[in-house]
Amino acid sequence: MDSHGEGPDGVRELAGIRRAYAARGYELVLPGEVAARGGAERRRIAGQVVSLLVEVYRRAPGPDDERAARELDGAVAEGGVRLFVLLDRRRDVVATTRFTRLARWFTEGPREGPQEGPREEGDAEGAGRGDVRYEVGRTGKRPGAEPRLAAGLLRARLLWAAAGGLPGAGLLVSHTRVARSAPGRPPVGPVLEGLVRDGGFLPAHAVRSHVVARTAVEPFVAACAPRDGAAWAAGVRAQRLRLPDRAEARLFAAMLAEGWGARPVLVPVADGGAAGPAFRAPLPGALRELSGPDPAVESLYLLSRRPADVGRAVDGIPYRVRADGAYASAGLSDRVVVEADAAEAPDAVAVLERLRRAGFALAGWEPSRQRSGRLALVLTRPGRVPDGGTAVAAPDLSALDRLPAAQRFLGGVLARLPEQPDGRI
């Protein structure tokens, strides 16, 4: 986020995008303008945004959509969601995207590492403004709208953020679809390309996190853009990461060197080792379940030695045995976040090896929620494709052509496919 779109040139470009839309009969409404609209108009926009995303992802409309619209309207009014909408001549929403402020996982301090500005009211001791993060996403364009209609909208959101639209934000994160184009599916690779090229994002990890449009398990790449990139790079290079010396860790180390100039220590480990499904956390309460196994959405677990304010403490992660004898997720897939404190602990390599024997493999990193300028590790374990003709979409990582190490590592992550209902891989 350091210099992408900041300054008068970025402001002029944003104004130019809005004028270009207006010349075609559309109005690009920025977050502050959406929030300032009257209650009835804002509620109407929120309802149309929810119905648009339901249509895009081919869900059946239901009573939960009304609640989702009310919650979105409230979040926009309170500032937790910064909503962009593109309106047509009838004042209907034809495209949308947003920034969503993410809740903290930890409130105990002190937080170490670089931080900006004074502590916000209500923040934990030491958890300064630079720790605030927003997720960019929930993007959709109404089916049947003209091609590339949302291209200016996606560029505008980055220009708006760089011009000060998110005061106090220390990080932007994304979870972006990267499925290869297919009949009936629009190209989604350019979205990640714009984040990396225009927004200063670095790819972080890859997942097959949920079924999209009830038709395909699609690949996603998470990415991150710190506001102070130089301070983050220095923090990551200072981090004491030790990884088992295996092929995936060597590829991951190359990705960290390419993006941050960081070089984790690769620790020799014994080949083989008995596989086993039971993964137990190193300390009671260290493993927390944020969401359990589900046939259409990944499960999410947090491993940390520090008390967390999310999820529930569990002893282990449910599993099943695939047709080839490998241990697998009890649902679509599993993701474990090994926080910075656990990733830097003396027994970190042993813990990672135990996860490997339970079927997990390195999928990348995410920014630590404990310390600015530190990384948490992300590991994933595939499960099974839901019944009912669900396909597994192939990834398009061409957006990462200028980051070959990341492209190789994340391509390997996405090559670990979920099992088909008939037992095929």
Describe the overall structure:
The chain has 425 residues and is α+β, with helices and mostly antiparallel strands. The chain has 11 helices and 20 strands. The strands form 5 sheets. The protein has a 7-stranded mixed sheet, sandwiched between helices. β10 (242-244), α8 and β11 (265-267) form a beta-alpha-beta unit. The radius of gyration is 21 Å and the shape is globular. The model is unreliable at 109-130 (pLDDT under 50).
Characteristics of this structure?
31% helix; alpha+beta; 425 residues; 11 helices; globular
Topology (SSEs and partners):
Layout: H1 8-23, E1 27-29, H2 31-36, H3 39-56, H4 63-78, E2 81-87, E3 93-101, E4 132-141, H5 151-165, E5 169-177, H6 189-199, E6 202-207, E7 211-212, E8 216-217, E9 220-226, H7 229-238, E10 242-244, H8 247-260, E11 265-267, E12 287-291, E13 299-303, E14 312-313, E15 319-321, E16 327-329, E17 333-338, H9 340-343, H10 348-357, E18 361-367, E19 375-382, E20 391-392, H11 404-414
Parallel strand pairs: 4-5, 8-20, 10-11, 13-17
Antiparallel strand pairs: 1-2, 2-3, 3-4, 5-9, 6-9, 7-8, 12-13, 12-14, 15-16, 17-19, 18-19
Helix pairs in contact: 1-5, 3-4, 5-6, 8-11
